[in-house]
Write a structure and sequence with these properties.
2 helices; two-stranded antiparallel ribbon; elongated; alpha+beta; about 20% helix; single chain; two-stranded antiparallel sheet
């Protein structure tokens, strides 16, 4: 989440007039990110972005009006699930209680 000053980006069409903004869009696309705010956040421009890499990570994105005298909209959203650590399905054997003497006798 953050404020980005790329006034010329059209998020609906994923296009931009200026080279720097096009490079920014390419960076977002190249890193498989999605921008989830759908309405302008400051004077008709979408400057505040919430970038995610999976759609199911956030929800209920809402603009909640300005805070104090500023003209930026507050953005509220819910984090739908915490990031989970990947669990390995690799099975390893536990040899701590192995009787290697018996094993050696059985092989001879």
């Amino acid at each position: 989440m953050g404020a980005f000053n790329h006034h010329d980006i059209c998020w609906r069409d994923n296009t931009a007039r200026h080279k720097q903004s096009r490079r920014f869009l390419e960076c977002i696309d190249g890193n498989f990110l999605l921008q989830v705010i759908e309405k302008p956040t400051r004077r008709g421009a979408m400057l505040d972005l919430v970038l995610i890499n999976k759609e199911e990570l956030v929800g209920n994105v809402k603009l909640k009006g300005s805070l104090g005298c500023g003209d930026d909209e507050m953005v509220e959203f819910k984090i739908l699930r915490a990031a989970r650590r990947a669990h390995s399905k690799l099975t390893t054997l536990d040899f701590r209680r192995t009787d290697f003497g018996l094993f050696r006798d059985l092989l001879v």
